[in-house]
Design a protein that fits this description.
Layout (H helix, E strand, L loop, with lengths): L6 H29 L17 H4 L14 H5 L3 E4 L5 E4 L9 E4 L3 H8 L2 H9 L5 E7 L11 H16 L3 E7 L9 H4 L8 H12 L6 E4 L13 H19 L5 E3 L2 H4 L21 E8 L11 H5 L9 H4 L9 H4 L2 E7 L11 H11 L10 E5 L28 H11 L7
Parallel strand pairs: 3-4, 3-10, 4-5, 5-6, 6-7, 7-8, 8-9, 9-10
Antiparallel strand pairs: 1-2
């Protein structure tokens, strides 16, 4: 969760260059007139970078097989469609509502990569009862995707294969965090190489994995800004439309999750302004993210000092999801399909204040206790031993596969109990 004192000289140089440029233009026009040379108008340069030929031409992965009776074998390629009440939600290939529940990795360049192994993915499916795993691609942080090609060539390819072998869905997360604007050059025209990393990444994924029923995409993790300057309509929606145009060229039906403003805490900004294709039609199979950390974002109870310092003490984050028509509180789940692609059992830092009682309230809402009677999918942050009390694992206290309970933190023990509890949509 989580980057000139030469004015007069420059001005003089600019004037000289400008003068030279004007003389050159006059000379060019004279030559063209004399020689009857026709010139073609030049296109304005793109504000974004290039996409590599390797991504455009990557070999398409043939369909992988899924274990019999596994979630993917039963539910197939997911879609977003209306339920019996007319509200959009995540559904199986037959149109029945489903709920994905699982874990998110931490950044692979940190402790996360040590936990992303073939055995551990198997453990998440068999021991933890996960039906989804979220693979977080931090981009511009130290050792992130922009600087480490093995994130794609090894980790991505392996996890796609391992999740398929266990019949578990894979949420591939483009982890926008710092900088928080998904249109930043650090994602769209990286200073180190000029590559549009986001477009290049989704070009590769959409072409490579177009036949994989278990793959879904999170287009941007947590768009954010210090003063609210990164907005849905000016920055996030246009970015999502760029990525959707790329993805839909190869995979017309894959479910895509769009990040929402202010660390994915304002999905309400999307209502009435959903991403559209070139013909003005709202894209199909879209769902929108919401993130919470239960000690900071809850029903307004002041459970941690961080929320008080941030000025959110007393703010009820739960009401818009639960809904209260009698008192004029609109239920977001009646307007938008939502996927909680990340949540923590602690305060927003992840480090302190394990808060199971508030997490219970949230998960009850997302199990259907809301005015829309919607079940909402979720991934817990995080399947790692790093990042504070919200991490599910301890360092060197036991095995992850076969699972030794001693390796679980308080949060990990709480989450695995929730994962193993059957709900009305259990496979």
């Amino acid at each position: 969760m989580i980057k000139k004192k030469w004015i007069f000289a420059c001005a003089a140089l600019a004037m000289i260059m400008c003068g030279c440029s004007q003389n050159n233009q006059k000379e060019q026009k004279k030559n063209e007139a004399e020689n009857k040379v026709e010139t073609k108008p030049t296109k304005p340069s793109s504000p974004f970078g290039k996409v590599s030929p390797d991504s455009k031409e990557v070999e398409i992965l043939l369909p992988l097989e899924y274990p019999k009776d596994s979630p993917v074998a039963k539910w197939g390629k997911l879609q977003v469609c209306k339920d019996k009440n007319g509200y959009r939600c995540l559904c199986d290939d037959k149109g029945n509502p489903v709920q994905l529940r699982g874990m998110s990795s931490h950044g692979m360049q940190w402790a996360g990569v040590a936990n992303i192994t073939e055995e551990n993915i198997k453990s998440l499916a068999k021991d933890w009862n996960c039906n989804v795993f979220r693979l977080a691609f931090y981009v511009d942080e130290e050792g992130g995707y922009a600087y480490n090609p093995t994130h794609r060539t090894r980790h991505l390819e392996n996890v796609v294969k391992w999740c398929a072998e266990n019949g578990m869905y894979l949420l591939i997360d483009w982890h926008v965090h710092s900088p928080g604007n998904p249109q930043s050059a650090h994602y769209r025209k990286h200073p180190s190489c000029g590559v549009d990393l986001a477009a290049d990444f989704f070009t590769y994924c959409a072409r490579r994995f177009q036949y994989q029923k278990h793959v879904i995409y999170e287009l941007c993790n947590e768009p954010n800004s210090t003063k609210g300057e990164v907005t849905w309509q000016r920055h996030i929606k246009p970015y999502c439309e760029d990525m959707l145009k790329i993805i839909r060229e190869h995979d017309k039906n894959v479910v895509c999750v769009c990040g929402t403003p202010e660390w994915s805490q304002r999905p309400q900004d999307v209502i009435g302004h959903e991403p559209q294709d070139e013909n003005g039609k709202v894209y199909d199979n879209l769902i929108y993210s919401f993130h919470f950390y239960s000690a900071s974002h809850n029903d307004g109870t002041p459970t941690d000092s961080l929320s008080i310092a941030a000025g959110i003490r007393g703010h009820d984050f739960m009401a818009p999801f639960k809904g209260d028509s009698a008192n004029g509180v609109q239920c977001i789940l009646k307007e938008l399909p939502i996927f909680v692609t990340e949540f923590g059992t602690t305060d927003a830092s992840g480090w302190y204040n394990f808060c199971p009682e508030m997490t219970d309230k949230w998960l009850k809402i997302f199990d259907g206790d809301n005015e829309a009677h919607q079940v909402v999918s979720w991934c817990n942050w995080s399947y790692s031993a790093e990042g504070g009390e919200c991490a599910a694992l301890k360092w060197n206290d036991g095995k992850m596969y076969p699972l030794d309970p001693n390796i679980l933190t308080k949060s990990g023990a709480y989450i695995i109990k929730k994962l193993k509890a059957k709900n009305r949509l259990s496979y």
